[in-house]
Design a protein that fits this description.
The chain has 690 residues and is an alpha+beta fold. Helix content is 49%, strand content 11%. Strand 15 and strand 16 form a beta hairpin. It starts with 14 loop residues before the first helix and ends with a helix.
Length: 690
């Protein structure tokens, strides 16, 4: 059937824009044509920013953008632009600053912006219902009011724009600090973090929903590993409580693996059902770290559940990873993932169905809505197994078999839509986690997947030394942001430190040089977008670490790691400049990813060099020992004896030799090495020494 409406988004590549191509709103993509029309017709611009798997974006589309009367109101009075925040994060980030300023810190998507033809925002909000609700104005009346004000009191609108821009730019007035945040100040701030955690269910305290606080959890693990005194156990206790409740909750997909985007309640029970690639990467990374630190196999199983989901559902046949899986199918939130009791009974034997339902709290009347159940665990696994005459291992094997059958039945349902965009930034995160998982879990398939994804980026998304952000429908487009560069550089360094193939270090160095050249601020730090990009009212440095780390945080960490690998102190100095430039933001607690960069800076990292044939089991045993221990502040290199003797060998391994003809490990600080060792036990002693 031919759609009743078609607008200019029909020519877009973005899945989110294509979702709106048949709205009655006369949407246009971001670009000169729309701005010229706004200036020519003397109309303000209505800008909506969202993404393909966003639940509330779907809601606003259904309630407002597909309503004929609202569409007419928009078309008659505004030039309407749609932006995919995943495709154009540089645009999203600038207007997010305006939204946070306008709403006193309440950001989110869809973002609702009204701005002048020269792109100055004067109104900013998030999702708006058509009619007033919960003390907030309705979208329909807001459109009418803004159209009237534009015609009758233009100067007041312009004044509003100036005031909003001034608020949005407030962080730029922060002068740099004279020094990098001190180790003592940093430790004090991290030690206070458990006070902000929910003592019953973990996660940051909230009366409403919760996002997995991955960056915060990782920095707490790192601080615990450095201190390990009585007070620091508050850190590990808060982390473990959070990880355990997340893995048991409805936010985790107990049938198909993977973590949903966030929980709509404090108990991790009812999720917002979209699955984002970057969530899987950063959350799995924390579970890997926790497994190293505690040797709790449950954390390893959860990490595998996240990574295996990505390998099975979000992976392109050429090796890259897709962006997300939607929250809705057949127009209903979560329909693909929830179960009635009768559906479970139809898949499993009577005995298995009873066990499955008891373990996952399934009720005949449903534990959620309309008789449907969200699978979640509230019982101790070992206690449950023992109560049914099994060991925990036997129960896990039986549950795995049941889960396979349930997943097979679920696969026959209509799946949520797939956003098959391949984003450099998010793929960088996934490559880093997969590379670590290869060594920490001793699963080479993860290392192979990481290398294939990295090769995809090198072949398809880097042209003439410049990184593109998006690959979709066979083409790469939109020049990368600082986040794309920083995350891919981190991925290449991590691949080098886990595969020990020199090509990855060379690729990291080359791309890091481009990162510095393209995004550096001479006064310290890195801008999020390249100069001269979109003609926006300012260039932001993305001065916070949220669900995604700031490229300033990741970029500074990359500089510190490369400074050691290459023996280039100037890179360390540049990293220090970034931390000083954002020092006040760091000290206020907005850059927790940067805190672990500062830890790396203050705590002399262990420089680990292994000389030996990579195929030799004795060499492999030394590598395994390196990754068995939780030593976050380290760099690692490995080379064959002949390669270490080469004049162009990386400084960390150059000139190092076998001891007694055996594979040998060197643990160094600032290139001064302890006694070389040849056994895992000796290496462990040096790695764990403070």
């Amino acid at each position: 059937m031919t759609p009743e409406h078609t607008n200019q988004l029909i020519h877009a590549t973005s899945p989110h824009l294509l979702q709106h191509a048949h709205d009655p709103v006369n949407w246009q993509p971001w670009g000169p044509a729309a701005f010229q029309q706004a200036a020519l017709e003397d109309k303000p611009i209505f800008l909506s920013i969202g993404y393909a798997s966003c639940h509330w974006c779907h809601v606003m589309r259904r309630d407002s953008f597909q309503a004929e009367d609202i569409a007419k109101l928009l078309n008659d009075n505004f030039v309407c632009i749609k932006v995919d925040r995943e495709e154009r994060p540089n645009i999203d980030e600038v207007f997010m600053q305006a939204t946070l300023a306008a709403t006193k810190g309440r950001g989110g998507w869809p973002m609702t912006i009204f701005m002048t033809p020269d792109r100055k925002p004067f109104f900013a909000d998030t999702h708006m219902a058509p009619e007033p609700r919960d003390g907030r104005p309705g979208f329909r009346n807001t459109c009418r009011d803004i159209a009237r004000r534009w015609k009758e009191n233009r100067q007041l609108v312009i004044n509003d724009a100036d005031a909003l821009i001034s608020k949005a730019m407030r962080f730029k007035s922060n002068p740099p600090t004279a020094e990098v945040i001190s180790r003592e100040t940093m430790a004090q701030r991290i030690d206070r973090l458990p006070d902000s955690f929910d003592e019953q269910f973990g996660g940051l305290k909230s009366r409403r929903g919760k996002f997995p606080p991955s960056v915060t959890l990782e920095v707490m693990l790192r601080e615990f590993a450095l201190q390990e005194d009585e007070a620091s156990h508050l850190l590990i206790d808060a982390v473990e409580l959070t990880l355990e409740h997340m893995a048991a909750g409805g936010i985790y997909d107990h049938v198909g693996g993977g973590m949903f985007h966030y929980s709509t309640d404090p108990e991790w029970f009812v999720p917002s059902f979209e699955k984002m690639l970057y969530d899987q990467a950063v959350i799995a990374d924390v579970y890997l770290s926790a497994y190293q630190l505690t040797e709790n196999e449950a954390y390893a199983r959860t990490a595998r559940g996240l990574l295996d989901y990505c390998l099975g559902d979000l992976r392109d046949d050429k090796g890259g990873f897709y962006a997300s899986r939607d929250s809705q199918s057949e127009g209903e939130q979560g329909k693909f993932y929830v179960w009635t009791k009768s559906e479970i009974d139809a898949v499993l034997s009577a005995e298995d169905a009873a066990l499955f339902s008891e373990y996952y709290n399934v009720k005949p009347e449903g534990n959620w809505t309309d008789g449907r159940n969200i699978l979640h665990v509230t019982k101790d696994e070992a206690v449950f197994a023992r109560g049914h005459g099994m060991t925990a291992v036997q129960w896990r094997e039986r549950l795995k078999s049941m889960g396979s059958k349930m997943n097979g039945a679920r696969s026959k349902r209509t799946p949520p839509a797939l956003d098959d965009s391949i984003l450099a930034e998010w793929n960088g995160l996934m490559i880093t986690t997969l590379a670590r998982a290869h060594r920490i879990l001793n699963e080479p398939r993860y290392g192979l997947a990481a290398a294939e994804a990295a090769n995809f980026i090198r072949k398809e998304m880097i042209k003439d030394g410049r990184l593109f952000r998006v690959h979709r429908a066979g083409k790469s487009h939109i020049h990368g942001t600082a986040a794309d560069y920083a995350n891919v550089v981190e991925a290449m360094i991590t691949l080098y430190e886990t595969t020990f193939e020199p090509e990855w270090l060379a690729a990291a160095v080359q791309l890091n040089d481009a990162f510095i050249k393209t995004f550096q601020d001479p006064n310290g730090g890195f801008y999020f977008a390249a100069a001269g990009g979109e003609g926006l009212f300012f260039r932001t440095k993305l001065p916070r670490d949220a669900s995604l780390p700031s490229p300033n945080s990741t970029g500074a960490h990359n500089l510190l790691r490369l400074a050691i690998h290459l023996n280039k102190p100037e890179l360390r100095a540049r990293a220090a400049g970034s931390m000083k430039a954002l020092g006040r933001t760091i000290s206020r607690g907005y850059m927790r990813r940067m805190l672990w960069t500062a830890m790396f800076y203050h705590t002399q990292p262990k420089e680990i060099a292994i000389i030996g044939n990579p195929a030799d089991p004795a060499t492999q045993a030394l590598v395994a020992e390196v990754y068995r221990n939780y030593v976050p502040n380290k760099v690692v290199a490995l080379a064959r004896p002949a390669d270490a003797a080469h004049p162009d060998a990386p400084p960390l391994i150059k000139g190092k030799k076998l001891v007694d003809g055996k594979p040998t490990a060197f643990v160094c600080l600032n290139y001064k090495c302890e006694k070389p060792v040849t056994t895992p036990a000796e290496l462990a002693e040096q790695l764990t020494a403070q």
